[in-house]
Amino acid sequence: MWEPPLFRRPDVMDAIVARQVMDLLIPDMGLRPVARCDALGAAPYSESSAFLLRPYLTASHRHALDLLSDWMTEAGMSVRLDPMGNLIGRYEGLTPGAPALLIGSHIDTVPDSGRYDGALGVMLGVECVAAFSRAGRRLPFAIEVIAFGDEEGSRFPASMLCSKAIASGVSAEALALTDQNGVTLAQSLEAFGLDPSRVAEAVRRPGEVLAYVEAHIEQGPVLESEGLPIGVVTGIAAQLRLRAKFVGTAGHAGTTPMNLRADALAAGAAGVLAVERICRDGAQDLVGTVGKFQTSTSAFNVIAGEAEIFIDVRASDRDTRNAAAEHIRQELEGIAEARGLSLEFVQVQDLPGCPCDPELTRLMGEAVEDVGVPARMLMSGAGHDAMAVARIAPVAMLFIRCEGGVSHNSAEQVTYEDTGFAARAMVAFVERLEARGL
Ligand SMILES: [Zn+2]
């Protein structure tokens, strides 16, 4: 297991100080983003006083933006609200109007949410700008920190409305979506002081956005299991949903000899284990799950005639995923044949993934190593705003370890120390982007 570097050792300290121009080791780089998420974790930044719920275009959203706007201003940014309610803080580059590196995540939450899912990425963006601003340092590009109003879809039946809005706009159908009280998105924007007829202005023009980077809690257990504070995301998983139905012969449990059976349930069980084995033995980021098992009959004394398994296969890379799905199909056919059954194998859904930009991901890996952490590459099994923004700009993502991999839950937890690594890695990433040239 990897051990964190000893920052008190003078040689290590010297090496880091030499590498970083700025005073990156001040403790509040990790402390402040966490403290700010904690501050936003209760009313009036939540609709409920019992748990955290901050849906899009609500009073709690407004309160959070007011406070965030102050933090952005204090960090040296000029702040504006776009027509979709995304709060954008801009730290101008050496040349006014230069293309911007966007650093963002979402500020909305699910009901009974943790305090860090989304918000931590925004706070890390503010922290990163504060470091450059404090050092009086301007870059050849601008940095814009963006707090997307909606990603979770906890108010309207759609997700990533706001990151999609800056990449590909907002459709008339989306503006007509209603919340549980029958209020449309258009009406909610108006009530928030925005003009729904101007939502198209939220779309970023070509050339305005240099790249997009998002830091987010991992929402999984990989970093924790390897003792790593942060990790580099290679992409958001491409997902396949498959349905496999074994068709045998229903029969009497007492009168059908074992050698004359075509037991679909037993075949299905072998199928479940085959999916598990193929995905466990496959590529590192390949995951496969049978989440549902259904039989035509369900009784003590009946041999099942039909059994259906529902399979979810994900990998960061589409080819890896498709190859695994094909391997699964062949194995299941072999199981059916050996047991004298037939197999129906159907692809139910193909959700494309979103690879992060290889060049930016390499830079992020180097930035992580710059702060003394081995660059662990990992896939994101969950969706993020980066997927939507990838339509208009190259994207990179950084994951932060969260306790037990728990998220979408008030028990969500991160440490100051891990967040400090993330903040310093974000700064190092910006420096590497600067060094690479535009
Ligand atoms: Zn999130």
Please describe what this structure looks like.
With 438 residues, this protein is of the alpha/beta class. The chain has 13 helices and 15 strands. It has helices at 10-19, 28-39, 59-74, 119-134, 161-168, 172-175, 185-191, 222-226, 264-281, 318-338, 358-370, 385-389, 416-436, and strands at 78-81, 87-91, 100-106, 142-148, 209-217, 230-236, 238-247, 251-252, 287-295, 302-303, 306-315, 342-351, 354-355, 377-380, 395-400. Strands 1, 2, 3, 4, 5, 6, 13, 14 and 15 form a nine-stranded mixed β-sheet that branches. A four-stranded antiparallel β-sheet has the order 9-11-7-12, covered by helices on one side. The longest helix is centred in the C-terminal third of the chain and has 21 residues, at 318-338. The model has no long low-confidence stretch (mean pLDDT 93). The chain binds zinc ion.
Quick structural summary:
The protein is α/β, with parallel strands linked by helices and 438 residues long. It has 13 helices and 15 strands.
Reconstruct the topology from this structure.
Layout: H1 10-19, H2 28-39, H3 59-74, E1 78-81, E2 87-91, E3 100-106, H4 119-134, E4 142-148, H5 161-168, H6 172-175, H7 185-191, E5 209-217, H8 222-226, E6 230-236, E7 238-247, E8 251-252, H9 264-281, E9 287-295, E10 302-303, E11 306-315, H10 318-338, E12 342-351, E13 354-355, H11 358-370, E14 377-380, H12 385-389, E15 395-400, H13 416-436
Parallel strand pairs: 3-4, 3-5, 5-15, 6-14
Antiparallel strand pairs: 1-2, 2-4, 6-13, 6-15, 7-11, 7-12, 8-10, 9-11
This protein binds zinc ion.
Zinc ion binds next to loops.
